[in-house]
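Question: does this match?
>
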Amino acid sequence: MNDIYKTLKDLKIKFVQHDHPPLYTCEQAEKYYVDIKGGKSKNLFLRNAKGNKHYLVVVESHKSVDLKSLAKSLDEKNLSFASPERLEKRLGLTPGAVSPFGLINDKKKEVVVIADSGLFEHKKLHFHPNINTATLQISSEDFKKFLSWTSNNIKFIKF
């Protein structure tokens, strides 16, 4: 597994780390993020009906994702949550630690990123550093730089 801290430093992306107990849901995270300004995300790892395509959906934490509508917009018949085994295989992550930073482990660039364009209305964004006991704050411009660096297919959608 690759080191996200080294990758961020190599890309000259500044970050502020906030340590906290293990967090598994956005609801749990909210009580730790009360004083932290910026866009918070929820990250969903999905697969298509055939299981031959995987999607990482990065959306503002307070928004809901209609999987049927999203599937239609992606020209898929159906989308569902991918198994923990698929998550581990594709992004090197475990449930509760899903983050766009896991893209550093997607060597074959198989995961398509669906990014909520609404996130970029915030100057600062927050993501787990591939573990759920910390959150990193980075600028939205640096997040765009990171996404570009990954070379994954990225689609920006307004949720």
Residues 38-157 form a domain with the YbaK protein fold (CATH 3.90.960.10). The chain has a mean pLDDT of 92.
